[in-house]
User: Which sequence fits this backbone?
């Protein structure tokens, strides 16, 4: 474990990604402690350009956009993390069950996985969100998690199948170890690096999914997320008013977060899959 | 039965089953709304109507369409029957327009925008990714992070930025609609020119984002192939570099075809939101309007149409893939 961490720290790609993510998180955690005002409070006229007092200007309601941005990043990252955790957990369980247990369970689970890979998760996301009346950010995160697991499930299954008949697994079987124990000690350690990478990708795509769904006006209520900020900017015609500060920083924040997560993933990929290292 | 027919039949079966699941989801999810959706909806539609007869007519119309008083399975039967006759119900927001009419007017715009954009982005992305893997050096060092960065920008974000930069600040392109609003659609150079000018920005923003993701995938596949033993062996045999590059490209390309099939859903979803940014008169913009008005028949019409198209496109790609990839053919032969 410490060994793999030490190798990881030598990968510039992973380092760049990790440092950018940590800096962003630090800002989001520390800034609300310094500036204790309410992000929903109106401070100025609508669409004031960035200047003294308001580092990123004001939005259509005259609220402090920088403060909104900080809270937005916080919500978006939280939604991404919960969605990613949920999707990875479901994918891992389904993948392990169908890969290790095999038989008809495998057939059924693989069929379900393949179906949900083809049906666009975006569509299910819209249909579910439209049907639910009160959406908190937790509910939105769970819906995203529940619709984005098939990728992980498919990959975990493939890896488990290739591990299932290795000698050490057979040895554990002969020694009479229980199935959960074999999965936990003989299978999981071999796919752990993959699962961590899948989790990082799921967080990134969770953040993007939240942004898309909020953009459509189906985001969580009573909160600020990066997607909701973009939705406000578009609905209240910030681009036409020339108020670039209402949407460029939010857009940039989404891009930077997902970019640093992707960078971390690529860095890890190059280390754990030596074949890709050029 | 020959191997390909068998493959075809098997895949068709799976896609039919998937289609059924998609239909059930599309039918069931909107019916989970609490309370009686018809009365909620009818009261919304008939707002402002004073004549009690016409309110009653609206109510009865939706009651009949939904068949809300019957058991769920009968409702599903009614739903399927209407579907087969091409009847997707009546829009609430634009009562009494038919959902199928609205969608029919939107489809040409969406297809005209997304099909070329996704294809062009896919081809360009693959070529760039392969070149980056092959040339390495500076080209790769610049292209890879750039592609990764563009890939992390959501579709609509890039669209908004382009709208702001080229549409509003530089005024090079119009910022909304599918053609100049004072025009009536007809065949003339002027109208076609207007359509092309409105088409440019949404087209470019979809192409750019697609290039990013595809280039990354292709680069990775190509590096993987370049490290394979057959490349070294061909080089030792003295086969010309250009020829080896062709082998590598061909081998790396195949997974990219499946990649296209699998990421199609995400791409179409992203492009739909692009349409909203540019108020392009396609499905995405209608979906946005429908969501804001809680126009359920129109929402489920849109989602159904998108799901069907993605399924169909996936099916087509898999069929072509079965012909193109010799490994799949070999697998079919073995099964026989």
Assistant:
């Amino acid at each position: 474990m410490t060994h793999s961490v030490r190798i990881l720290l030598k990968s510039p790609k992973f380092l760049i990604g990790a440092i950018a993510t940590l800096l962003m998180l630090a800002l989001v955690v520390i800034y609300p402690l310094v500036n204790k005002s309410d992000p929903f409070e109106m401070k100025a006229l609508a669409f004031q350009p960035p200047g003294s007092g308001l580092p990123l200007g004001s939005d259509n309601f005259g609220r402090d956009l920088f403060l909104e941005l900080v809270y937005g990043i916080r919500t978006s990252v939280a939604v991404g993390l919960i969605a990613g955790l949920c999707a990875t957990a479901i994918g891992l369980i389904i993948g392990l069950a169908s890969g290790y247990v095999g038989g008809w369970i495998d057939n059924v689970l693989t069929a379900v996985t393949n179906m949900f890979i083809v049906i666009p998760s975006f569509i299910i996301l819209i249909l579910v969100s439209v049907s639910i009346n009160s959406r908190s950010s937790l509910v939105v995160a769970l819906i995203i998690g529940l619709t984005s697991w098939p990728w992980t499930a498919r990959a975990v299954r493939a890896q488990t199948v290739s591990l299932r008949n290795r000698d050490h697994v057979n040895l554990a079987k002969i020694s009479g170890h229980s199935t959960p124990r074999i999965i936990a000690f003989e299978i999981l350690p071999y796919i752990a690096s993959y699962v961590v990478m899948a989790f990082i990708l799921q967080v990134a795509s969770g953040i993007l999914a939240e942004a898309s769904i909020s953009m459509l006006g189906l985001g969580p209520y009573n909160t600020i997320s990066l997607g909701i900020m973009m939705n406000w900017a578009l609905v209240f015609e910030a681009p036409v008013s020339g108020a670039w500060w209402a949407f460029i920083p939010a857009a940039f924040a989404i891009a930077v977060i997902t970019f640093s997560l992707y960078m971390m993933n690529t860095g890890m990929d190059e280390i754990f899959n030596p074949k890709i290292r050029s | 039965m020959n191997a390909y027919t068998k493959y075809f039949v098997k895949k068709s079966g799976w896609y039919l089953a998937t289609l059924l699941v998609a239909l059930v989801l599309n039918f069931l999810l909107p019916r989970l709304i609490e309370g009686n959706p018809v009365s909620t909806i009818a009261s919304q539609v008939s707002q402002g109507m004073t004549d009690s007869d016409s309110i009653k007519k609206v109510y009865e119309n939706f009651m009949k369409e939904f068949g809300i008083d019957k058991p769920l399975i009968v409702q599903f039967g009614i739903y399927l029957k209407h579907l087969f006759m091409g009847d997707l119900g009546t829009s609430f927001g634009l009562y009494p327009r038919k959902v199928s009419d609205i969608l029919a007017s939107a489809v040409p715009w969406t297809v005209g925008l997304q099909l070329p954009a996704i294809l062009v982005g896919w081809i360009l992305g693959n070529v760039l990714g392969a070149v980056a893997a092959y040339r390495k050096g500076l080209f790769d060092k610049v292209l890879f992070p750039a592609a990764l960065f563009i890939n992390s920008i959501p579709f609509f974000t890039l669209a908004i930025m382009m709208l702001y930069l080229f549409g509003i600040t530089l005024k090079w392109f119009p910022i909304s609609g599918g053609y100049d609003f004072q025009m009536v659609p007809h065949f003339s150079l002027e109208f076609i020119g207007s359509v092309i000018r409105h088409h440019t920005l949404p087209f470019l923003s979809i192409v750019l984002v697609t290039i990013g993701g595809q280039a990354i995938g292709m680069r990775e596949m190509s590096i993987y192939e370049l490290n394979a033993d057959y490349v070294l062996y061909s080089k030792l045999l003295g086969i010309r570099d250009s020829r080896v590059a062709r082998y590598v490209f061909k081998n790396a390309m195949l997974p990219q075809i499946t990649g296209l099939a699998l990421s199609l859903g995400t791409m179409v979803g992203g492009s739909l939101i692009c349409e909203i940014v540019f108020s392009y008169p396609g499905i995405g913009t209608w979906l946005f309007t429908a969501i804001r008005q809680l126009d359920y028949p129109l929402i489920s019409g849109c989602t159904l149409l998108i799901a069907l198209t993605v399924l169909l496109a996936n099916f087509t790609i898999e069929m072509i893939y079965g012909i193109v990839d010799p490994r799949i053919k070999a697998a079919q032969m073995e099964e026989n």
